[in-house]
Amino acid sequence: MGYPKEGDNIQIHSYKHNGLLHRVWDETTILKWSQDLIIGGNDRTMVTESDGRTWITREPAICYFHSKYWFNVIGMLRDDGVYYYCNVSSPFVWDGEALKYIDYDLDVKVFPDMTFILLDEDEYEQHRKQMNYPNVIDLILKKNVEHLMSMIRQRKGPFSAEFIDDWYERYLYHVK
């Protein structure tokens, strides 16, 4: 199975715990690919929902996936600053077709001033019961939410001051 290289375009597929496809991002440009870390960029990419509806992203975004973290981070570049949308999810896998992960409902939205809110706790509880998330998954997810919030507070990893700017410059190089 071949791995994408810098500059290649891939799809991103999000699933739910029950194995059903949740959402597909049609095109993301690979900026970094290693065993543990994938960074991609996209702008105005088509997103297809599980019910077939489609929409187009509104702004450039830098996507951060790590093989050891149960979350991924999308930094969206808007006129008034960078907003982050963090999906609590399984670590990514690459199967030769797409980068894939399981979306576990909880999300953290981070504002340009680095304040943040935890979203969709009700949806998480509903799906946890409906899809029988194992207790070990529940514990892993809660521990990773704490780690994610710590990274935000400390401005580490994708939340550091220069991260999005540096990777966006690399993205612009590839889409010229």
Point out poorly predicted stretches: none
- Average pLDDT over all residues: 97
Q: How many domain units?
A: 1
How would you write the strand order of the largest sheet? Answer: 1-2-3-6-7-8-10
Instruction: Profile the largest sheet.
Output: 7 strands, mixed, barrel
What is the CATH topology descriptor? FomD barrel-like fold
Q: Give the second-level CATH assignment, the architecture.
A: Beta Barrel
Q: What integer value in Å does the Rg equal?
A: 16 Å
Structural class: alpha+beta
CATH class: Mainly Beta
Please report the distance between the alpha carbons of the first and last residues. Answer: 29 Å
What is the H/E string?
EEEEEEEEEEEHHH
Spell out the CATH superfamily: FomD-like
What share of residues are in beta strands? 35-45%
List the total number of helices.
Answer: 3
Walk me through the structure.
This protein is an alpha+beta fold and 176 residues long. It has one domain (9-175): FomD barrel-like fold (Beta Barrel). Helix content is 24%, strand content 42%. It has helices spanning 121-130, 135-154, 163-175; strands at residues 9-15, 21-33, 37-42, 46-49, 54-56, 61-66, 71-78, 81-89, 93-94, 99-110, 116-119. It has a seven-stranded mixed β-barrel. The radius of gyration is 16 Å and the shape is globular. The chain starts with 8 loop residues before the first strand and ends with a helix. The mean pLDDT is 97.
